[in-house]
Amino acid sequence: MIKRIVSSVILIPLVVYLVLKADLLYVRLSFLLIEALAFSEWLGLDSRPFDFKKSLYLSLSIILSFVFLFYSMYFVDVLFFALVVSMIVGFSSLSKKEVFYDYYYFVGALYVILYSFGVKLMGFNNGRWLLLLLFVSIWSGDSFAYFCGRGFGRHKLSPLISPKKTIEGAVCGVLGGVFIGVLFGLFAKVNILDAFIVAFVSNVVGIFGDLSESVVKRFFSKKDSSHLIPGHGGILDRLDSFSFAVFFSYLVLECKTLLF
């Protein structure tokens, strides 16, 4: 518990400074480093030696992350999603034995590259505050879910994947995360609708991000993705909700901008 508190005391101010004050170049470089470390953790979950194939996927992941972070124009977005479709189609022609680890590595690369949408989210009006709001909302939702689940959780959310999570805890997490997110939005003078969208979307889809990583860790019989952050586990453990949350928050805000 002490390690967890100390890590939080160090990391939270660092995140706040990075999101609100740091030059965009350093924000991008920080995201690039985080994505590289997160994907390294993903590759390490299967306990196989770090061979040429893993090195190749890590290199490709870093290159794609770099392109997506520093040259994120419209054609790059189209290229990114076209690559997703083409790789999935390509893997379908491989044998089951060959496809498993290739598909696992590829999905992991996509999973961590989605972190890059945090930088894209900063492009909206008051985008830096929106990104910080997303973090605050997710962290608050996690706390509400944990304490409400322990206090009066009765119905399991997904017994096979994450036995300790309950439906009651998940509902409280969403409601609490949205409440704190909107309050934070008022404090930060963020558009109230944008604040609600980010808080609601991030807490709802964040549940699936959390469960997705739980599936992977349970499959490989791992409790934590690494021990990089004392008391917290690894980057994947800390950002298990962030990947889906920031991606779908960005998509919904972008749709809102285009429609209204």
From TrEMBL:
Pathway: Phospholipid metabolism; CDP-diacylglycerol biosynthesis; CDP-diacylglycerol from sn-glycerol 3-phosphate: step 3/3; Lipid metabolism. It is found in: Cell membrane. GO terms for cellular component: plasma membrane. It is an enzyme of class 2 (transferase). It is a multi-pass membrane protein. Its EC number is 2.7.7.41. GO terms for biological process: CDP-diacylglycerol biosynthetic process. The keyword Coiled coil does not apply. Keywords: Cell membrane, Lipid biosynthesis, Lipid metabolism, Membrane, Nucleotidyltransferase, Phospholipid biosynthesis, Phospholipid metabolism, Transferase, Transmembrane, Transmembrane helix. It catalyses: a 1,2-diacyl-sn-glycero-3-phosphate + CTP + H(+) = a CDP-1,2-diacyl-sn-glycerol + diphosphate. InterPro entries: PC_trans (IPR000374). The keyword Acetylation does not apply. Belongs to the CDS family. This is Phosphatidate cytidylyltransferase.
